[in-house]
Fold this sequence. Notes:
Mean pLDDT: 90
CATH topology of the domain at 33-101: Alpha-Beta Plaits
Strand order of the largest sheet: 2-3-1-4
Largest sheet: 4 strands, antiparallel
Order of helices and strands: HEHEEHE
Shape: globular
CATH class of the domain at 33-101: Alpha Beta
Distance between the termini: 31 Å
Amino acid sequence: MNSHPTIDPELLIRVLLFELNLKRYVGPDIPHVNITATYKEGTDLHKKQEEGRDKYPIEITTNKWGDGVIFSGLMGVRHIEKIATDPDIVRITGKASPRHN
């Protein structure tokens, strides 16, 4: 069961499947994930971007529409769930790939 209703369940399933399958191969056992975190109206996205950069060793930037923050890097389900603990996040969507480049 999704303990974070803000996270797209299809994204979690895809990341989990990659995590399980990548264990069989040489290299990182977590997929490369690009997620967009949409925040509550009026949230300072620049502040959220800087907080994210201090907390996580992945690339973080605001999206071109100015309504969300993009997190990009090697992430597993637990990493996405940790990002989702921010109470200002309304929704997390994204894509996962087994490729690490």
